[in-house]
């Protein structure tokens, strides 16, 4: 039976971007369930860090392109005092994938991610309404071209297929009706998109915000039928009907299960492949309805469930590139305002296959084991190893200090490995990885220090940390 402290470490890996040993110890003092509540409670933003960030990196607030915004997103994942809120912003970005390749408006994409933060734990209905008003989503799925006399079905189709219910839960006629209900939902300053090259405000203030507008004169007003309901529906009416469906409850439950518990296949396969744990989906669906569609209640149900606490799921999910990068930076403490590398760090997830705010399609990214290929794996290992090679980084200084304090307890190789793993967030290694680390240590002792038997040598902390973060186990959460 694993300890409660290890359970809290598991929670922080899944519900945030990992935790330092100090964070794990602090949460252990209040207990597991109080830790869940604390993560779900949105605390006052650490805004002073934002002020400092914009002072040193003014392009983070500009939205000219993707670079500054991606750096800001990675910064928030690493440093926010509301890590689950950031994790949910990344989750919703994954579900409602919207990309720069078509939108070409960094400012609008920044606003969308902020909307995800604001609705991270709230009513799913309110989130869908806010999503439908987002200029970036309107552009991404062409709802600005959806008129009462010329219906464009792109947004209506994806709202049902990928955003709420899933294939098989509706008909082609439902798609047409849904699309008609969203006519008139457009962008007020749309003409700006065609003249932005001559209309940008000056750097570093960034581009003008695009604004949602409802044009009543362009809304389809005839009676329509949607999922068995008949009326003169607008977009909000359609969302009301969607949220009442069992299919919606199961769909969002499966997304949450896949993201936080165990990888499911890509969404297009869901109509043909049953959930890994139908009982878990049923429990989450019940929470969805009982709470009035509240995501916070679903998350509390999930994190306090037996299926989430199970030891069988630990270290079985491949970290996404952004999760890996943010988790490493959290441990090394090297992503603070004024650090020049903060811009470079934003590039690493794209090197590993995840270009934030520019997913490959409306499906988002295929995750799980698909994050790993020969090229991506080299980038992942090289990034982690390079970060843990610099012992001037504040987080690594703390780790080394902690290990030196515990040096008196290090009397064999297993004790050394355990202390190293504890200081990396109570991670677990497979037997093969532990054996490889042990062999490496003794070979280094024999080569560098002429020792044949175990002896704790402080100079070995650095290469041992580098070896640990290069293991397959470190890529998992």
How much of the sequence is in beta strands? under 5%
Number of helices: 26
Radius of gyration: 24 Å
What's the total count of β strands? 4
Largest beta-sheet characterization: 2 strands, antiparallel
Distance from N terminus to C terminus (CA atoms, Å) equals 19 Å
Shape: elongated
Binned, the helix content reads 40-55%
Decide which structural class fits the backbone.
mainly alpha
Poorly predicted regions: 195-199
Mean pLDDT: 92
The domain count comes to 2
Task: Report the order of strands and helices.
Answer: HHHHHHHHHHHHEHEEEHHHHHHHHHHHHH
Major beta sheet, strand line-up = 1-2
Descriptive labels:
mainly alpha; two-stranded antiparallel sheet; 26 helices
In short:
With 477 residues, the chain is mostly helical. The chain has helices spanning 4-15, 21-30, 32-40, 47-56, 67-79, 83-95, 100-103, 106-118, 124-132, 135-140, 154-161, 172-181, 191-195, 235-243, 246-260, 278-290, 295-303, 306-309, 321-332, 341-345, 348-351, 374-387, 394-405, 413-423, 431-449, 461-469, and strands at 185-187, 212-214, 224-226, 229-231.
């Amino acid at each position: 039976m694993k300890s409660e402290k290890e359970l809290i470490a598991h929670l922080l890996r899944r519900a945030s971007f990992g935790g330092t040993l100090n964070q794990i110890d602090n949460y252990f003092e209040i207990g597991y369930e109080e830790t869940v509540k604390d993560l779900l409670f949105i605390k006052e933003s650490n805004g002073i860090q934002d002020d400092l960030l914009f002072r040193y990196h003014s392009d983070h607030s500009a939205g000219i392109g993707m670079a500054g915004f991606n750096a800001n997103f990675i910064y928030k994942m690493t440093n926010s005092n509301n890590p689950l809120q950031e994790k949910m912003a990344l989750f919703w970005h994954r579900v409602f994938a919207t990309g720069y390749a078509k939108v070409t408006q960094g400012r609008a994409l920044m606003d969308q991610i902020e909307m995800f933060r604001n609705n991270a734990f709230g009513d799913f209905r309110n989130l869908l309404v806010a999503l439908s008003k987002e200029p970036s989503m309107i552009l991404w799925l062409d709802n600005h071209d959806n008129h009462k006399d010329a219906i464009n079905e792109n947004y209506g189709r994806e709202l049902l297929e990928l955003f709420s219910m899933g294939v098989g839960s509706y008909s082609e006629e439902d798609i047409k009706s849904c699309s008609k209900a969203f006519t008139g939902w457009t962008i007020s300053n749309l003409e700006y998109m065609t003249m932005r090259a001559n209309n940008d405000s000056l750097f570093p203030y960034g581009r003008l915000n695009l604004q949602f507008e409802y044009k009543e004169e362009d809304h389809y007003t005839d009676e329509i039928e949607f999922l068995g309901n008949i009326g003169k529906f607008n977009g909000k009416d359609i969302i009301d009907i969607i949220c009442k469906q069992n299919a919606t409850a199961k769909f969002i439950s499966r997304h949450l299960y896949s993201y936080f518990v165990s990888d499911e296949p890509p969404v297009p396969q869901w109509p043909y492949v049953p959930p890994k744990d139908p009982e878990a989906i049923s429990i989450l669906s019940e929470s969805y309805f009982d709470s009035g569609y509240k995501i916070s209640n679903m998350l509390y149900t999930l994190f306090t469930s037996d299926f989430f606490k199970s030891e069988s799921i630990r270290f079985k999910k491949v970290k996404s590139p952004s999760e890996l990068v943010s988790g490493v930076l959290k441990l090394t403490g090297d992503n603070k305002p004024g650090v020049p590398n903060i811009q470079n760090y934003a590039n690493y997830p794209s090197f590993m296959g995840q270009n934030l705010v520019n997913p490959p399609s409306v499906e988002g990214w295929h995750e799980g084991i698909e994050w790993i290929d020969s090229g991506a794996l080299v980038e992942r290992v090289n990034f982690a190893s390079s970060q843990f090679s610099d012992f001037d980084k504040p987080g690594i200084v703390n780790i080394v200090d902690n290990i030196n304090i515990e040096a008196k307890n290090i009397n064999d190789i297993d004790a050394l490995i355990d202390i190293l793993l504890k200081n990396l967030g109570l991670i677990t290694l497979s037997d093969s990885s532990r054996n490889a680390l042990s062999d490496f240590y003794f070979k280094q002792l024999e080569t560098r220090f002429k020792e044949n038997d175990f002896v704790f040598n402080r100079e070995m902390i650095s290469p041992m940390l580098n070896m640990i973060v290069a293991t397959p186990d470190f890529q998992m959460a």
